[in-house]
Amino acid sequence: MRLTVLSVAYPLTAVGPDAVGGSEQILTHLDCALTRAGHRSLVVACEGSSVAGELISTPRWDGNLTDDVRRWAQAQHRIAIEQALEEHQIDVIHMHSLDWHAYLPAPGPPLLATLHLPPDWYPDEVFRLRRPRTYLNCVSRAERNSCPPCEPPMFVVENGVPVDMLYSRVRKRNYVLALGRVCPEKGLHIALDAAKRARAPMILAGEVYRYEAHLRYYEQEILPRLDAQRKFRGSAGFLEKRRLMTGARCLLAPSLVAETSSLVAMEALACGTPVIAFPSGALPEVVEHGRTGFIVHNEQEMADAIHAAAGLDPEECRRVARERFSSERMARDYLELYQQIARDRDLDGGQAAVIPGRASTAAAAPGGFGG
pLDDT tens for residues 234-248? Predict the structure, then answer.
């Protein structure tokens, strides 16, 4: 059955191969997979986005991001979605952003909303929606287990990354890496402190979005910790990210919130780089303690694990990534779910409706570093 899928991105962030945000990366992979498989992919995203299918663009905003700007952007998305539904025969709508409920279309085609962020970041109303043929998706079992009881059926399609594209012959060098959005919840200041404690050179790469809290965090917590050995590179596109990840001794992921998944950890493992992470949300499902990295609980344990990471096998990290985290597996699972939803099958969101990854996830380590 050939499908027409309307994917909807966050209004203020472009999608494409060099996207920084996790939801934008996942949408990009699915857009490419749909197009390769002969389906029609329509993407509502801001100007400057790069898609494999057909872009339905909304205005881009390059200034500071305020509540008024967000409301304006949501209104632009709402108009674009309504026009797309009027002009095209849509089989499935797939919402990807945090604020998707603000431009939820009227009853019509079946709608799947993937919850890329922790459940408590969404208003309670999304778990009580009565819109017909509306479904929720979690990206890990840890996220599913943390969700409240909800009216819409709920599924689990686990995230994936382009494992084969992440392979590189870059040699390992003597630095540790942290990469991602530069914002308080990612705990990147802890990574800088742990690297300094371990006397390890460090590269921090990521985007500083123009939210007041993000800018303040960068100025107050990141800038003062930078020096000749700990440097900030700014945003990294795909090729630069692959080079940095492959060359790193290890990746540090000291997240302070319950991560629903961790694309950056999956990408690092695909690059043959162990991950040292806090036990936040789904991170213990991604990092196998003592095999592909270490689960630690504080700055000192992270510093100790930096030295121990040299004893882990890069090829084992790559092998685990190929088995568990491929974007091809993720795309197959989503395409299967799209087909089920489009056929209006009786999907009740119970255990039988969960679409798991093709390989089992790892259990959390029983203790901290060295446990």
Answer: 999 899 999 999 999
User: CA 176 to CA 199: how far, in whole Å?
Assistant: 10
Spell out the residues 6+ positions from residue 140 whose beta carbon is closer than 8 angstroms to its own: 156, 158, 159, 260, 261, 281, 282, 285, 361
**Distance in angstroms (rounded) separating the CA atoms of residues 266 and 262:** 6
pLDDT at 371 exceeding the cut of 90:
no
- pLDDT tens digits along 282-327: 999 999 999 999 999 999 999 999 999 999 999 999 999 999 999 9
3-state per-residue secondary structure call for 42-102: EEEEECCCCCCCEEEEECCCCCCCCHHHHHHHHHHHHHHHHHHHHHCCCCEEEECCCCHHH
Q: CATH homologous superfamily for 164-321?
A: Glycogen Phosphorylase B; (3.40.50.2000)
Fold of 4-161+326-353: Rossmann fold (3.40.50)
**Rounded Cα gap, residues 269 and 283, in angstroms:** 13
Contacts of 89 (CB under 8 A, 6+ apart): 4
User: What residues does CATH 3.40.50.2000 cover in the chain?
Assistant: 4-161+326-353, 164-321
β pairing state of 293-295 and 275-277: parallel
Sign of CA dihedral 332, 338, 344, 347: positive
